[in-house]
């Protein structure tokens, strides 16, 4: 049974790293107090792992980093839970593909190992990474990701600003372009929000809610506490 916690962001304005979500993370982990951290979305992997280890230690959870070598598959197979950190989604996916870790991680997560992630880490949980906000600084073999949920997520979703003088596309316009070519629901997950999935149940949590986009239909607002079961 899937146990997922998908965070739009790892740091909220005015608060420390993961402070806004630590209670929900502990709830998602249940009795598990050892987490394997995937740092591949940033270049400074050692520094990223150290930051995550220190934050989790302050919450009574032991953490270690996933290595980018031949031991990585065994680490995933032995993990009690996984947290996939944010950063550049293309770099994250390419590294996971290069190490042949997509299949093993997907299998463990679908078996019920808690999967937690933020930003790029929740793009990875989607069927593809096509709704990421990131630049393609590297080229993965494909955009196919873990497919732990049947919908796409756009993390850090920003509502259009009617007072802005910026003439580029809004986030909503970019998602509309995605829907012109793809018929899959997109959840625009605002800062401070998260999606909690347990088996075939899903709920929106945190702050600020989300906006749902479907091809050929008006956008739909969902508030914190609302069910997302219809997307599962």
Shape: globular
Give the overall pLDDT as a whole number.
96
CATH architecture, by name, is 3-Layer(aba) Sandwich
**CATH fold name, please?**
Rossmann fold
Which structural class matches the secondary elements? alpha/beta
Name the CATH superfamily classification: Class I glutamine amidotransferase (GATase) domain
Description:
- By secondary structure, the chain is α/β, with parallel strands linked by helices.
- It has helices at residues 22-29, 45-57, 72-78, 89-98, 102-111, 120-123, 171-181, and strands at residues 3-7, 34-38, 62-65, 82-84, 115-118, 152-157, 186-190, 193-198, 201-206, 210-213, 220-222.
- It has a single domain (3-231), classed as 3-Layer(aba) Sandwich (Rossmann fold).
- The longest helix has 13 residues, at 45-57.
């Amino acid at each position: 049974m899937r146990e997922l916690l998908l965070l739009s962001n790892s740091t909220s304005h005015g608060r420390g790293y993961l402070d806004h979500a630590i209670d929900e993370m502990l709830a998602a982990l249940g009795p598990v107090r050892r987490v394997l951290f995937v740092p591949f979305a940033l270049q400074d992997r050692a520094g990223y792992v150290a930051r995550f280890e220190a934050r989790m230690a302050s919450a009574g959870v032991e953490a270690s980093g996933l290595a980018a070598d031949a031991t990585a598959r065994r680490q995933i197979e032995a993990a009690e839970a996984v947290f996939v950190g944010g950063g550049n989604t293309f770099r994250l996916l390419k590294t996971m593909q290069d190490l042949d870790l997509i299949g093993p991680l997907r299998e463990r997560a679908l078996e019920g190992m808690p999967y937690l992630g933020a930003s790029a880490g929740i793009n990875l949980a989607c069927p593809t990474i096509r709704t990421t906000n990131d630049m393609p600084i590297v080229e993965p073999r494909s955009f196919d990701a873990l497919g732990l949920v049947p919908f796409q997520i756009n993390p850090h979703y920003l509502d259009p600003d009617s007072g802005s003088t910026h003439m580029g596309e809004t986030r909503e316009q970019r998602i509309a372009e995605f829907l012109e070519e793809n018929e899959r629901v997109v959840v625009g997950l605002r800062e401070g929000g998260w999606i909690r999935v347990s088996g075939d149940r899903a709920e929106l949590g945190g702050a600020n809610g989300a906006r749902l986009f479907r091809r050929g239909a008006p956008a739909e607002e969902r508030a914190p506490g609302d069910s997302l079961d219809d997307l599962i």
